[in-house]
Design a protein that fits this description.
This protein is mainly alpha-helical and about 160 residues long. The protein has helices at about 15-25, 40-45, 50-65, 80-85, 85-105, 110-125, 150-155; strands spanning about 65-70, 75. Strands 1-2 form a two-stranded antiparallel ribbon. Residues about 140-155 have low confidence and may be disordered. One of its GO terms (molecular function) is DNA binding.
C-alpha cells in the first residue's frame, strides 16, 4: 500500500500534498534511485484520487528533476548522482569541505558537524512542509503558504 493520507484540514491543493509526500519518500529512501513508481492510473486508483491530480504531481516532479518518465516504460526515481558531471561534483565537494572546515574552525568535532547538518536538514524539510515520518510509515503534510490560491488550484483540476 502506498503510504499517503489526504490532509483534509489544509488548503494545500491535493496535488501539492502528493508531490510533497513523494519528495519525502524519495529523500527518506523509501523509494530508491532508479525505482519505478506506480503508474498514474494505478496510484490514482490505489489512493482514491483523480488521475489528473496524480499526473499533475508526477509532471511537477519530472520538471523538478526528481523523476523521469519514459513512454511505454513508466516513471522512475531519477538517479541524479549518475547524471552529475565531474565539475558539478567537485563544486559540491568543495562547498561541503569549506562548510566542514568553517565548523571545525569554530571548535566543533566532526560528530558535532554531522549533528548540526542533520538538524539543519530536518529543519529545511519541515520548512518545505514535511514532518518526520511517523511510526506507521506515514508523514503528515503541514500547511505551506503557496501564495494566492484559485479555485482551480485548490481542486487540483
Amino acid at each position: 500500500m502506498f503510504p499517503f493520507e489526504v490532509d483534509t484540514t489544509t488548503d494545500v491543493p491535493l496535488w501539492v500534498q502528493l508531490r510533497q509526500r513523494l519528495i519525502y519518500l524519495i529523500n527518506s529512501g523509501y523509494f530508491k534511485l532508479g525505482d519505478q513508481l506506480p503508474t498514474v492510473r494505478g496510484l490514482a486508483s490505489e489512493i482514491s484520487i483523480n488521475y489528473n491530480t496524480v499526473n499533475k504531481a508526477y509532471l511537477s516532479l519530472v520538471s523538478d528533476g526528481y523523476l523521469e518518465s519514459t513512454r511505454g516504460r513508466g516513471v522512475f526515481v531519477r538517479d541524479l548522482d549518475a547524471e552529475m558531471d565531474e565539475e558539478y561534483t567537485k563544486d559540491v565537494d568543495g562547498i561541503m569541505s569549506d562548510c566542514v572546515a568553517a565548523c571545525r574552525d569554530l571548535g566543533l568535532s566532526l560528530d558535532d558537524v554531522q549533528k548540526c547538518m542533520t538538524k539543519k536538514i530536518k529543519q529545511l524539510k519541515k520548512d518545505e512542509g514535511l514532518e518526520p515520518e511517523r511510526a506507521d510509515g506515514t508523514a503528515r503534510i503541514v500547511s505551506v503558504d503557496v501564495g494566492p490560491a484559485t479555485k482551480k488550484a485548490r481542486t487540483g483540476a
